[in-house]
């Protein structure tokens, strides 16, 4: 969900996240309770498409859509044998 910036007449800034269809034009200020008007969003063109922008998106998305993993340790592969010589199987193991 997009993040909207609101500002009251006293200058207090408030950010709130709403679905695009449900975004209000004004909300109550969190500091003074006055009506805060929605401001025009900045386009964030300088970081769009960058790794930092991807991190911001995934962080915001994880708040309401946690990532589902298939195993308890997805990044670790099972150990592979270091030798294929059958005589090495007879050696003592630690
Ligand atoms: Zn205020």
Automatic annotation (TrEMBL):
Species, as recorded: Arthrobacter echini
Protein name: Zinc ribbon domain-containing protein
Record-linked SMART domains: CxxC_CXXC_SSSS
Domain Putative regulatory protein FmdB zinc ribbon: 1-42
InterPro entries (alphabetical): Regulatory_FmdB_Zinc_ribbon (IPR013429)
Region of interest called Disordered, as start-end residue ranges on this chain: 57-94
């Amino acid at each position: 969900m997009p993040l909207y910036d609101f500002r009251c007449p006293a200058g207090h800034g408030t950010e709130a996240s709403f679905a695009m269809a449900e975004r209000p034009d004004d909300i109550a200020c969190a500091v003074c309770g006055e009506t805060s008007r929605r401001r025009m969003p900045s386009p964030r063109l300088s970081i769009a498409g960058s790794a930092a922008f991807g991190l911001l998106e995934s962080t915001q998305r994880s708040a309401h859509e946690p990532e589902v993993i298939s195993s308890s340790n997805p990044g670790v592969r099972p150990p592979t044998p270091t030798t294929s010589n059958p005589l090495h199987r007879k050696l003592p193991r630690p």
